[in-house]
Amino acid sequence: AVDAAGNKGSAATVNFTIDTTPPTAPTGLARTTPDSNNKPAFSWTASTDASGIDYYQARMDSGSWGNIGNVAIYTWPTALAAGSHTFEVKAVDKAGNMGSAASLNFTLSTLAVTNLTASPASFNPATGSTTVSYTLSGATVPVKLEVLNASSQVVRTIDAGTKAPGSYTIVWNGKDDSAVAVGEGSYTLRLTAGNV
Fold first, then answer.
1. pLDDT digits (tens, 9 = 90+) for 70-111
2. How far apart, in Å, are the Cα atoms of 9 and each of 6, 36, 45?
């Protein structure tokens, strides 16, 4: 520009990018916590975009979308009820373009094992056995009992089959997986219910 006195002004330039392309959808969306965790955690492979990812939005069960930051691991903050759920996540780039959502359907259970006891607590494998009692609630799942020695090695595994909610017993005769009586000492019983 030139003013009335003939003085020439200076010029300035700035480069900028117009971005109307949304980011890619996150890939590899997975739940990283067990079925019994009612505050599930999720992970995914980051979206890509020319102008960069600004943040992600997430929602549960078609609820409202919320800004969860620029992360690829997220734990849902509120407890969910047992049953089927859908988690969705999508990226928003630095130009404000919103990408497509990735979604994951999953089921939570209220699986619980309570009242685990062994009676008698001391016995001689040559002349007796112990009865392991437990109560299962929440779901029909496979159950197994493991007997661990003082070194935390599994010496016996008893597959109790698939059990519905209720009270059950398993008898352990004091023998290992080779049907040999275990040695004197302390043992730990570990009852596993579900696919842990």
1. 999 999 999 888 889 999 999 999 999 999 999 999 988 766
2. 10, 71, 51
β-pair partners for 53: 93
What is the distance of C-alpha 49 from the center of its chain? 28
> Would you say the pTM of this structure is higher than 0.85?
no
Q: Is the dihedral of CA 150, 152, 153, 157 positive or negative?
A: positive
- Closest listed residue to residue 118, CA positions, set 130, 128, 135, 136: 130
Cβ–Cβ under 8 Å, residues 172 and 142: no
CA-wise closest residue to 173 among 138, 134, 127: 127
Residue 151: which region, alpha, beta or left (left: phi > 0; alpha: psi -120 to 50)?
Answer: alpha
9 or 50: whose pLDDT is higher? 50
Instruction: Report yes or no: 136 and 165 within 8 Å, Cβ to Cβ.
Output: yes
Three-state SS letters, 57-116: EEEECCCCCEEEECCCEEECCCCCCCEEEEEEEEEEECCCCECCCEEEEEEECCCEEEEE
Closest CA to 111 of 35, 191, 32: 35
